[in-house]
Inverse folding.
């Protein structure tokens, strides 16, 4: 199969020019002006942007949490991602305490196999790591799992103590892997929650109020110190507030290898959503929580300046009916997380490019290229170059849409609400190629399935 994309404006993290792109099989074979090659399919991209497929390095499909599972599995979630212009995700496999990480990896392979429409990799969530099991990390690297998420939050569930953090950091550093961190001091947060619940504070508003920004900043500081000593590259996931960003910048200034991502919810939304009537605030109960709106602009500025490397979604959808509702009597019982896998590219194009915060190259960098480079997938993924996977999005920069769970054209996620209900955006995904297959054409899915597991490279290594 071959595809010729003609007349488009080709934008990567560094380039911006008019060119045709010829795709043969799964790869980009030719880029040039007015290509005259024969192709099975010809797509006219005049007036459109031709950009690398989006990469979302933070999703939770089919994930058990708080007695429930996220509402999207690898089938529905990867289709929704494709509609939104994302062609690669990195999901999180979870290790059960006392069991092997390799067992956790097998379980997540079974969840995904044969279901995905786009390509996917796995991070490993490490919940414990005794000395005698450290050898598992060598095997994980061989299996292409080169980043490990660790939690300072959720005591008794995903939390790991500082000794476990340090031990895992040290080993990850030795094998060329990266540590991802959920930076919230969960031990102190649980004390605050206990105190507030005893005073009768049980509504969703208290989810935000019991998780102060300072305890996110403290966790960044502590992890950065441990990573510095353990000599491992650190990556802060779902960074949500300026206090935490300040600690990232401080650590970087003293030479720590530390990067971070933020998510659209921390750029567009704020903690006033928790006060919505009729328990509606539960829709935005996630950890870390939405913050005061004074944090939105500093995070945008961090993204513009490069202090924040990229935008991921932390897509963790739970239906309002039947799932979020489990916490009607007590906010701690609300499953944590919100949907967004489908909305990321349009939101960031709108907030970044249309609203004038940054240009097209940075848009591509924060939605695709940076994730490929940080997580060992470049240049196979994350760019439009000869020999790269033909993961390509034809993006209409002018189309305006209103995101709504009740509009089937803007909502394909299998969840009964949108975190961005009613938000008007400019910039929309029109056509999507995943390794050369046209999977979305003019906003319709024309082919599903076919997504493959990606074995990722170590930090700093290229992936063919
Ligand atoms: O609330 C969230 N973010 N749920 C997903 C799990 C995590 O911590 O990323
Ligand atoms: Zn997390
Ligand atoms: Zn997450």
């Amino acid at each position: 199969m071959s595809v010729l994309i003609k007349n488009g404006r080709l934008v990567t993290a560094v380039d911006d020019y008019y060119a045709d792109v010829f795709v043969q099989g799964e790869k980009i074979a030719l880029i040039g002006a007015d290509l005259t090659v024969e192709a099975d399919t010809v797509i006219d991209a005049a007036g459109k942007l031709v950009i690398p497929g989006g990469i979302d390095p933070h999703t939770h499909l089919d994930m058990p949490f708080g007695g429930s599972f996220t509402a999207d599995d690898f089938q529905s979630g990867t289709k929704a991602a494709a509609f939104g212009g994302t062609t690669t995700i990195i999901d999180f496999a979870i290790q059960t305490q006392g069991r092997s990480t390799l067992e956790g990896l097998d379980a997540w392979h079974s969840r995904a196999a044969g279901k995905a429409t786009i390509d996917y990799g796995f991070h490993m969530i490490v919940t414990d790591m005794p000395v005698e099991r450290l050898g598992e990390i060598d095997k994980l690297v061989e299996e292409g799992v080169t980043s490990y998420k660790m939690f300072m939050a959720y005591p008794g569930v995903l939390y790991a103590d500082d000794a476990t953090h340090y031990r895992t950091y040290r080993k990850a550093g030795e094998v060329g892997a990266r540590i991802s961190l959920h930076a919230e001091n969960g031990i102190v947060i649980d004390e605050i929650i206990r105190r507030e619940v005893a005073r009768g504070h049980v509504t969703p508003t208290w989810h935000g109020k019991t998780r102060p920004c300072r305890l996110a900043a403290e966790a960044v500081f502590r992890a950065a110190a441990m990573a510095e000593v353990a000599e491992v590259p650190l990556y802060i996931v779902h960074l949500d507030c300026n206090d935490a960003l300040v600690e990232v910048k401080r650590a970087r200034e003293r030479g720590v290898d530390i990067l971070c991502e933020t998510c659209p919810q921390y750029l567009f939304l704020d903690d006033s959503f928790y006060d919505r009537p009729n328990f509606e605030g539960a829709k935005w109960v996630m950890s870390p929580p939405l913050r005061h709106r004074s944090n939105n602009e500093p995070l945008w500025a961090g993204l513009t300046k490069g202090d924040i490397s990229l935008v991921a979604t932390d897509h963790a959808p739970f239906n309002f009916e039947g799932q979020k509702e489990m916490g009607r009597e007590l906010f701690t019982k609300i499953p944590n997380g919100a949907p967004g896998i489908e909305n990321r590219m349009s939101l960031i194009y709108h907030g970044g490019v249309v609203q004038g915060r940054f240009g097209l190259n940075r848009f591509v960098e924060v939605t695709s290229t940076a994730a490929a480079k940080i997580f060992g997938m470049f240049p196979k993924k994350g760019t439009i170059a000869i020999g790269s996977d033909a993961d390509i999005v034809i993006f209409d920069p002018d189309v305006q849409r209103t995101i709504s769970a009740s509009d089937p054209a803007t909502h394909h996620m299998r969840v009964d609400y949108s975190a961005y209900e009613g938000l008007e955006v400019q910039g929309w995904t029109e056509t999507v190629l995943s390794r050369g297959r046209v999977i979305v054409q003019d906003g319709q899915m024309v082919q599903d399935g076919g997504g493959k597991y990606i074995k990722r490279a170590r930090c700093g290594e290229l992936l063919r």
